[in-house]
Design a protein that fits this description.
heterodimer; A: 240 residues; alpha/beta; Rossmann fold; six-stranded mixed sheet; 8 helices; B: mainly alpha; globular
């Protein structure tokens, strides 16, 4: 039985992140609650990746506060992230998952079965013994997803999971994301691929120049955008 | 070892005295590499990962120690192990163990400094992933050492090359005692000083051949491992 949610909701209250005097995020206030995937969209440099890292607890806010399940005194543990260019450990695909399971504190006796289950979930059951770095880009993305799921996260952050993938590989990754979301795991995903956002999002957050330009359900965002930035972004205009 | 035999004849006949010298040389050098790896690899990894005051200075000192003069190390170990030295009661002077200690001191900084650079480069690549997986410092060190294992083979070979070619330290602390602490390098030095150049050259060829064979084996292991692990 799944443990009670403790990491959600993730609340950002008037958060700013400044790195070397450059404001990456400013005045961000939003709540990431359990439910359908939240997709962060926006042009390059809008702060999507930094927002994911902030919500993941990898980057501290320069101002404001972030709470996980109402807590401010301890960082979240049941959360995972797949980076835009996930780094495969220099071992087999199966060993990459075994490593993540060990890091997640899964007992040795339960690792083999869980590893097989995760490989099957991402469609890599036949490739377990292959060196992870010899897998294709799409296969590596799916392996990274399996590795991230090793700790049974309550929230999964994905940074441009389909960037640089061909349509077939993108579909395979999106299928896994749907399966993950269907298991009740909160997915928070950054992308600049509007098609992917349309297919996966329950909620859209448009970032522009480090600020939230618009936040709405996916249906509202695409059918009835409110701000100039949202109009321009959906129309495919250059948002600079 | 018959003095009138040609180097080739000595090698081809597997002369027992020659074999004993080769065997001792390998035992001393490989033991020193093993001890240096046990000490130097974790030190290199810790310096690569940890951030502490004086880290830059530590790296500079570690790099500088790669150029330790063997005779100075030999002299220092001699003073430590001599009867009147602080470790004189151990009775190790003029034994193979003393030679291993001297060579370990000599090559440990080489292994630590080269490992530090290798692991720091890999750490840049792995940092985000291991942080996201909440892997602690000990786990990070172990992971990076394991995943850098094929690159670290070259580091160990650099240490072995230094140990196998070294003569200054082992001749001081070993004493070049025939049948007990005589290695290939000390034998080459002795035979050269006696004017027996063919024998010295023969030993030199054997030494070079051993270094080449060890390197070839290590290269083969590295290639096979990379093919398997990626």
């Amino acid at each position: 039985m799944r443990a009670p949610l403790t990491e959600l909701p993730i609340m950002l209250e008037d958060v700013a992140v400044t790195i070397r005097d450059v404001a990456i995020l400013d005045g961000i206030s939003l709540t990431l609650a359990a439910g359908a995937p939240t997709v962060l969209v926006g042009p390059n440099g809008s702060g999507k990746t930094t927002l994911l890292r902030l919500a993941m607890g990898l980057v501290p806010p320069s101002r404001g506060r972030v709470t996980w399940g109402g807590r401010t005194d301890s960082l979240p543990t049941r959360r995972a992230i797949v980076f835009q260019r996930p780094v495969m450990l220099r071992r087999s695909a199966a060993s990459n998952i075994r490593y993540a399971l060990k890091a997640a504190g899964v007992a040795r006796a339960g690792r083999a079965a869980r590893m097989i289950e995760l490989l099957a979930l991402v469609g890599l059951a036949e490739l377990g013994q292959r060196p992870a770095r010899r897998l294709s880009g799409g296969e590596q993305q799916r392996l990274a997803l399996a590795r991230a799921l090793a700790k049974e996260p309550q929230v999964l952050f994905l940074d441009e999971p389909t960037a640089s993938l061909d349509p077939a590989a993108s579909k395979a990754v999106e299928d896994v994301i749907r399966a993950v979301a269907a298991r009740g795991i909160k997915v928070v995903m950054a992308t600049h691929d509007l098609g992917s956002a349309r297919r996966l999002a329950g909620e859209i957050v448009l970032l522009h120049r480090g600020r939230v330009a618009e936040m709405a359900t996916a249906a509202m965002f695409f059918s009835n955008p409110v701000t100039h930035e949202a109009h321009a972004f959906i129309a495919g205009e250059l948002l600079v | 070892m018959p003095h009138d035999a040609s180097p080739l004849a000595l090698i081809l006949s597997a002369d027992p005295a020659l074999i004993a010298i080769v065997r001792l040389s390998l035992i001393v050098s490989l033991s020193a590499v093993a001890a240096s790896a046990l000490i130097g690899l974790p030190i290199g990894a810790l310096v690569a990962l940890a951030r502490f005051p004086g880290r830059e200075l530590t790296i500079v000192v570690l790099n500088a120690l790669m150029g330790l003069p063997p005779v100075v190390v030999g002299l220092a170990v001699y003073l430590l192990l001599s009867r009147s030295g602080p470790l004189g009661s151990w009775g190790l002077l003029f034994t193979p163990q003393a030679m291993i200690i001297a060579q370990t001191i000599l090559i440990m900084p080489i292994i630590a400094a080269l490992a530090r650079q290798t692991i720091e480069d890999l750490w840049v690549e792995y940092r985000d992933e291991l942080a996201a997986m909440d892997v602690g410092l000990a786990g990070r060190v172990a992971t990076l050492l394991w995943d850098a294992r094929f690159s670290l083979v070259t580091t160990l070979l650099a240490g072995f090359g230094r140990a196998a070619a070294e003569v200054g330290a082992v001749i001081i602390v070993g004493g070049n005692i025939d049948g007990f602490t005589r290695t290939m390098t000390t034998a080459i030095a002795l035979e050269t000083s006696k004017g027996d150049l063919p024998l010295a050259m023969g030993l030199g060829f054997v030494l070079i051949a051993i270094v080449v064979i060890v390197n070839a084996l290590a290269w083969g292991v590295r290639r096979a491992g990379e093919r398997f692990a990626g």
